[in-house]
């Protein structure tokens, strides 16, 4: 869904504020922010788009005080799907590489830049959502990315429809099988959210949404 003018302004303001807090205000940082918003708005995105980015930033605002390094978390959210082609298996790696190039070339003191780049790289790669233990601020980045799972049913349904449109080129039978495998993999986890904050608020509705979505897919197999 394209950004409204107000949403675009909100994202732009958030990027400028983040860069100012990092000491990166300037035309170069502004240009990267514009490039990021453009990248997030490209075809064939229908869920992993700029509205998802904005939702992530809004979630971040609510937990910023609980992050060890909130700037690293925010940067990871900005970059985590900056490169996104549904058929590619290298989206996270290429997104993390973009983040690393930006940070290392930002003019920050070298030690700070190296540390920040390493953190953001790790956090972006964590959004591959492999089943495994998360540590530190990785937990916030991944939980924010997965917050859509615990939204009201109509919002979650729109998410599923958006994902299907992103994979419009996949035959229905193959999509049902593949998407069903993804949904089951989430449901089989002991918990969906690593942080207690998200677990307490979204775990139950997320599991209900996933169960309904899986049942709907299974009905399509018949």
Protein architecture, described:
The chain is an all-alpha fold and 222 residues long. The chain has 2 domains: 127 residues, no CATH class; 74 residues. Helices cover 68% and strands 0% of the residues. The protein contains 10 helices and no strands. Helix 4 crosses helix 6. It is globular. InterPro entries: HD_phosphohydro. It comes from Caldimonas mangrovi.
Which helices and strands appear, and what pairs or packs with what?
Blueprint lengths: L4 H18 L4 H14 L9 H14 L6 H10 L11 H14 L5 H17 L11 H8 L7 H14 L5 H16 L8 H26 L1
Order of SSEs, N→C?
A: HHHHHHHHHH
* Biggest β-sheet strands, sense, barrel: none
Query: Outline, from the CA principal axes?
Result: globular
Tell me the count of domains: 2
Low-confidence stretches: none
Report the span from N to C terminus.
32 Å
What's the β-strand tally? 0
Strand content: under 5%
Helix content: 55-70%
Rounded to an integer in angstroms, the radius of gyration calculated over CA atoms is 18 Å
| pLDDT averaged residue by residue | 96
The helix/strand class is mainly alpha
Number of helices: 10
Protein name: Metal-dependent HD superfamily phosphohydrolase
């Amino acid at each position: 869904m394209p950004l409204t003018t107000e949403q675009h302004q909100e994202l732009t303001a958030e990027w400028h504020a983040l860069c100012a807090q990092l000491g990166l205000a300037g035309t170069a940082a502004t240009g990267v922010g514009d490039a990021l918003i453009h990248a997030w708005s490209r075809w064939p995105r229908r869920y992993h788009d700029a509205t998802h980015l904005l939702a992530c930033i809004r979630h971040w605002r609510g937990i910023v005080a609980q992050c060890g390094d909130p700037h690293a978390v925010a940067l990871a959210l900005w970059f985590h799907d900056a490169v996104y082609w549904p058929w590619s298996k290298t989206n996270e790696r290429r997104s993390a590489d973009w983040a690393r190039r930006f940070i290392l070339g930002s003019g920050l003191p070298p030690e700070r830049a190296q540390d920040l780049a390493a953190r953001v790289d790790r956090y972006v790669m964590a959004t591959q959502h492999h089943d495994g233990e998360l540590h530190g601020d990785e937990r916030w980045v991944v939980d924010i990315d997965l917050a859509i799972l615990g939204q009201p049913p109509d919002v979650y349904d729109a998410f599923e429809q958006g994902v299907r449109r992103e994979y419009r080129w996949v035959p229905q039978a193959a999509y049902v099988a593949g998407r069903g495998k993804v949904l089951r993999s989430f449901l089989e986890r002991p918990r969906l959210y690593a942080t207690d904050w998200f677990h307490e608020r979204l775990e139950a509705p997320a599991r209900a949404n996933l169960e309904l979505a899986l049942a709907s897919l299974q009905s399509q197999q018949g």
